[in-house]
Design a protein that fits this description.
About 35% of the residues lie in helices and about 20% in strands. A seven-stranded mixed sheet has the order 3-2-1-4-5-7-6, sandwiched between helices. The N and C termini lie far apart (about 35 Å). The protein is of the alpha/beta class and about 210 residues long. It is globular. The protein has a single domain (about 1-205), classed as Vaccinia Virus protein VP39 (Rossmann fold), CATH 3.40.50.150.
Length: about 210
């Protein structure tokens, strides 16, 4: 909790309890199925929870906004963001059923009423969202193809509706087709840990 409170000191007691419960919940599931790489569990809060929360340094989701976490895996960035924004609706989807089972259980145990998790492929989703978030599930060009047409025309936020994508490394070639639209946020500007030195939040409006 100290690491999260270092950057988000205004958490409510309920949020503190929920964040504090995450490591044990995921360690328990990881003992049954490999949701997160075993070696990564030692840095679970930094590599998964805090990394997910970098989105909250870029945008504050509004009450009743609709956010899809596409390719959520074990629930990242969706679960930490759902804790951070309890009045925002989160739809967490993945094509792998066992991962969605984990997400559903974690959300239930945390009492997250703002999370719906479903095993479904991107092309099968028939809803509109204010933003689609994700964490490095594929090349950005392919990801844009998956979610184009799923972004709402109704705007509530300072940033126009679109994609918020977590990825690391040299992204020059990947963002080249969208360079006039993309904004890159260096996560190292938000968090001082060395792990975040090459990691970025990619934002791109899709309307």
């Amino acid at each position: 909790m100290d690491l999260i409170l270092k950057y988000f000191p205004e958490l409510t007691e309920r949020q503190k309890e929920q964040f504090a419960a995450l490591p044990e919940l995921y360690a328990d599931w990881n003992s049954k199925i490999n949701v997160i790489s075993r070696k990564d569990m030692d840095n679970f809060v930094e590599h998964h929870v805090l990394h997910s929360l970098s989105v909250a340094k870029v945008i504050k989701f509004k009450t009743m906004a609709d956010i899809m976490d596409l390719g959520t895996g074990g629930g990242f960035p969706g679960i930490p963001l759902a804790i951070m924004f309890p009045d925002t609706n989160f739809y967490l989807v993945d094509s792998i059923g066992k991962k969605i089972k984990v997400v559903q259980d974690v959300a239930q145990q945390l009492g997250l009423k703002n999370v719906v998790a479903e095993q479904i492929r991107a092309e099968q989703v028939q809803r509109d969202f204010d933003f689609v978030v994700s964490r490095a599930v594929t090349d950005l060009s392919q990801f844009v193809g998956w979610v184009r047409g799923k972004i709402s025309d109704i705007q509530y936020h300072k940033l126009p509706n679109g994609i918020i994508y977590l990825k690391g490394g040299d992204l020059t070639d990947e963002i080249a087709p969208f360079r006039k639209k993309v904004r890159l946020f260096e996560i190292s500007d938000f968090f001082s840990e060395p792990y975040f030195e090459t990691k970025k939040v990619i934002y791109m409006p899709l309307k």
